[in-house]
Structure formats: C-alpha cells, structure tokens
Write a structure and sequence with these properties.
The structure holds 2 protein chains of 2 kinds.
Chain A (H helix, E strand, L loop, with lengths): L4 E10 L2 E11 L4 E5 L6 H8 L6 E6 L8 H7 E4 L11 H11 L5 H9 L14 H13 L5 E5 L7 H15 L5 E5 L3 H4 L5 E6 L2 E7 H7 E6 L3 H7 L4 E5 L2 E7 L3 H5 L3 E3 L3 H10 L6
Parallel strand pairs in A: 3-7, 3-8, 5-6, 6-7
Antiparallel strand pairs in A: 1-2, 1-4, 8-9, 10-12, 10-13, 11-12
Chain B lengths: L1 H14 L2 H27 L3 E5 L2 E5 L8 H26 L2 H4 L2 H5 L6 H41 L4 H6 L4 H18 L1 H13 L4 H20 L3 H10 L18 H9 L5 H4 L2 H6 L1 H23 L2
Antiparallel strand pairs in B: 1-2
Helix pairs in contact in B: 1-6, 2-3, 2-6, 3-6, 3-9, 3-12, 6-8, 6-9, 6-15, 9-10, 9-15
The chains are: A alpha/beta, B mainly alpha.
Amino acid sequence: MSALVKATGISKHFGAVRAVDDVSFDIQPGRIVGLIGPNGAGKTTLLKAVLGLTQCDGALSVCGLDPFKNRRELMHQVSYVADVSVLPSWIKVSQLLDFVESVHPNFSRSSAEKALQRTKVMPNAKVKELSKGMVAQLHLSIIMAIDAKLLILDEPTLGLDILFRKAFYAELLGDYFDEDRTIVITTHQVEEIENILTDVMFIDDGKLVLDASVDEISERYTELMASGDDVAKARALGPVTEREVFGKSVFTFEGVARDQLASLGDVRTPGLADLFVAKLGKEGGAW
Amino acid sequence: MVANMLMLIRRELWEHKALYYAPLVVSALLIFGFILAFFTAVFTGASFQVAVAGLELTGAPGTLAGGSALLAVPFGLTSFVVAVVIFFYGIDALYAERKDKSILFWRSLPVTDTETVISKWLTAMIAAPIMAFAVAFVTQLILLLLASLAILFGGGNPVELIWAPLPFVQFWILTFYIAITMSLWLSPIIGWFLLSSAFAKRSSLLWVFVPVIVIAMLEGIVFRSGHVSQLIGERIGFAGISGLTFPEDMMVMDEDEVARQLLAGDIDILGALAPIDFLLSPGLWGGFIVTAAFLAGAVYFRRFRA
C-alpha cells in the first residue's frame, strides 16, 4: 500500500527560525501515529503543512494531493481538530450539524447525533451555553462522524478532565479506528496515548529525532533497572541515559540485546516519556 | 455548488441576525405607531395624525390623505437601517472569525476561502437587501390594511382613497429594482469592507476609514488633486448611476417627492427603468473590477493570515 502522507525534505522558515528543518517521513494507512515533541519543536507547523494551512519547502503529498494547492479536495479526505475550543459561540448545535452535513459529503449526521446522545449536549443549545468539556465533546463528535482517511488531532484533550480523556481515547480506538483509517495525534500527555499508538515520531528543534513503529522501539530500546555490582557492568555497555529511582539505577539502552541485559536486572521496554528524554538528551541525529 | 453557497449564506444569517432583525424592528415600530394613532383617532373622533419616524399622515379618519407615504416610508426606512447593518456586517464578517478563532474550525471543512468570501459578499449584496425588501413589502401591506380600516371606521371608502389611486405593482417593481441596482452599484464599497475585515489585526472599523483618509490626504499633498475622495464620494452618492431615466434629483430617493409624483401620475414608472443601460454602464463594471480586486485581497489574507 502506498503511503498516505509522504514528506520529503520539508522545511518551513519563519525569518531566521527554522520551525521545521528538512524533515522526511512516510505515514502508511491504518496507523496511529503519535507526534511528540516539546513546545515550539515544530509539531504544529508540521501539521499545518500537512493540512495545507501553510506553505513549505520540499515535497509533500497527502492522500495523493498537494495539501496547500488542493485544500478543498484534501478536506474531503482529511479531518482535523486544531484546537477544541474554536467552535463559534453563537451557533446552535443543530445548526452546526446542518452546516457540516451540507458542506461535507463524508459527514454522517446520524453517527454524530448518536455520539452526542451519550453526552449532555442538547441539539437546541448554543455553543456559548455549553461547558468547555461539552464543546470539546461536540467538536470531537462532529469530527469523528466524518469518514476521513486521515484524522489529525492536535492536543485534542487539552484542558479536559481525566474521565473525559480516558473515554475519548477508548472511543477513538474502539469505535472510530479501523485499518482504512489513519490517525495522527499530538499531546503533552504522552502516557495517555502510548498504549494506542502504532508509530511514534519525535520532533525537536524542527528535526525528526525518532520515527519508528512501536514494535521497532521495543526491539531497539531496553530499559534496565540494576543495583549493586551490576550498575558498573551496565554502564560498561554504553547506556543512552541513566537515572536513579528509589536507590536503583535505571538505564536506557539502544541497540543492545535484551537477553544480554536481562542478566543484570529487570528489563522492559521504556515508556515513551523516558525514551523521549533519552533521545532528546543525546547528541546526534535520527536513526 | 449552489447548495453549498446557499448554506454558507444561511450560516451568515444565523450569525448576523441583525440583518433581518433590524428591518423587523423598524417594521414593528411603524405598525405599532400606526395602530396607536388609529385607535386614538377612532375613539376620540379627533383628526387622524400619525408621525412615526418620518411617516406622517393627517386628516380625519374618513378622509385620510397621504396614503403614498404608506408605500414609501417602510421602504425608505428599512433601506436606511439595513444599509447601516450591512456596514457593520461587512467590517465584522472576516474579522470576528479570526478574533474568536472559529476560523480554525471553518477552515477544517471542505469549503474554500474563495467560497467563504463570496458568500459574505453575496450576503451583503443580495441576501440582506432582498430580506429588507420583503420586510418592507409586508409592512406596506399591513399599514395599507390598517389605513383601510381607519378610513372605514371614519365612514370613508378605502378603495377610493387608497387602493385605486396608488400604483402598487409599479411601485413595488420600482423599489425592488432600486434596491438591487443600488446594491450592485455599491459592490466595491462592500468589497472594501470585507477586505478591511480580512486584513485588520485589531480594529476593523479603523481599517475601513484610515487607509482611505490617508491615501486621500497624500494625494492632496503630493498631487494637489482630490480624485480619490471624489471617486468615493461619487460612488456613495450614486453619481453617474444609470439605470433609471428619472430626473437626476430623483435618484437620491426623496421618497415623499417621488411618491407624490407617482401618485399624481406624473411619472411613467416602468418606462423609467433602464436595466440594459445599467448593466452596460462603465460605472457598474468598473465597480465590479475593483470589487474583484478587493475580494481577491480578502481571500489572500484569509488564507495566509492564519
């Protein structure tokens, strides 16, 4: 299957600042990709380029289209949430559904209504009468009722409570996702999404520092918790990072066989947050 | 495509309710004032007097005169009010969506910036004037019915006093024609409002006036001429609009005078309409070219000023 998103040498400069710096990647259909990076790393700029909201240098194709030139066609196949607090306050819920139904051929009003029935959002309510969480539910219900090849969620759960976030990701994975769909998510709360991701992209300072599937990551990276004499042996194997947890040393290794490490202590696949720190703390580029 | 455009225009009307509320309020005030005067006249037996916002009718209920004002005043008043509302609509149309960030949502749907800008232009140019006309039309009918009742109660004959002499159909054709031609004539002004609202970072109200004033002043200082202000003044004053073969002074729509002459049969209304002249006039097409440039600018800013 050909890549849904194909980016080759993408760059975006704002004056002297390189927001995105020569980034290349492919996103295959049927994946859930986490785009992870610190604030100002270039995540949003990169997504904007993918969504045709900003022009960039390099070759970029999304669903076989040039996103900037063919925005309208692109928006038939791609849906996104740039921010969950941007629904116009004056509009009524029913009007919003009328509007999207009319302008979007791939929108299923009935599935949006079904999703909204599980919430407290009433069809006659105006957006300004809804709580922040309800506005987010409304927005996400609409976006997820669009039969899109690619769904892009930029901080979809920002400012929402934990119950809502859990429910949202459960629904995303359970009801929405299937092998024909592709989802790209950015979030600060890496822990919340790491269980649903199939692929991970780390971006820092405009550069892609990691682009790998979750399977590849577990093959390549190992976290070792060691104590006593084993600590020195572990250090000798060249860990990427080392930190102290409850008097024990925790190492992250890259490209060292797990069997070899298992004799030195407890091993597991590192969490994305730890891996993120490990990758960004280290000199050198992507692999 | 057409269905999409109609939905985009509906969306504008959902957001900017003043476009139809304002004419409705005018209508309600006129009707309310009239009813008040009607009851006063009938129950006190006094002479009939109505003076609401320019609508003046005097005489005993049985011999009501000035019925033509019943036609002219609702049209004139709603036109004026809707023009003010359209001004505020224009400077807000592409500005508010950036201010409340809802543009991020709108742009996530398969609607191009060009379609959005055109829908806003059509709302100001066509939808708002037609709605105002419809409200004025219904108001006229209600006022005419109320006046007929007042005349009946006074022992007069409404058919003789109002319905027979007034050239209703011709007047409605004329006013509808005027509403559309004036609106098309003002197209570049609407285009400028939209461009300002797409460009403005802070106050779009400021951006409507300041560049025009600055350019006109610079022209005055550098070239010692006043073409810019003259051009704008002519456009707003409907100078050079060709679409009616009435005498020049009637183009500024002095409703009472027009109505008086209409009633007197001094004017051949339908013969005065010159839609072909209007459609072929350089002033109209020059205006459209300027409009296209302004709208293209508005599309550009909506697209790039994210």
